[in-house]
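Q: Sequence in, structure out?
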Amino acid sequence: MQAPGPGGAERYFTRWYKADVKGRPCEDFCVLQHSNRRHKRVWLLLFLFCRICVITLAEAHPLLQSGKTIKSINYQISANCSRLQNKVSGKSKRGAQFLTELAPLCRISSSDGEEYTIYSCIRGRLIEVNENILSNPALLQEKPLTEGYIAVVLPKFEESKSVTQGLLTQKEYEEVLLKRRNSSA
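A: Exactly. Output:
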């Protein structure tokens, strides 16, 4: 999948947020859910794309703050699980790894010694991981909503309407950020 182009993230994707994942302050993620506005007349494309979700870092994530440099990205989750080994085939996406909301997608180390685990935030099948960030980690920081995405997840069809339960709208997320700023001032 190609990441949304300039303006594409705003035009064709709805932003949803998961704040303080697993109780870790500011470790926030963004889920870009395809809105299907572009494909209203083509049923097959509507079926495929209205559910597609792109997992990215939210703007308040510590890795996107000034002074952080990404040292490494590792899709090896455990001794027996590598997200890079995810092999998907066919229109039913056979072979895709199934993810829960708290399934780790990758681990990212920064030059200051901190390590961050990036979580799926939604249930679904892992369609792909962004291998481009392995050779160019700066994409995560420079273009987190486009070329710097982490992974693409396809929720189950029957769960596609409820996939955003437990996620924040952009307005709700902005309120969370405002409360953080006010409490730290």
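The two ends are 42 Å apart (CA to CA).
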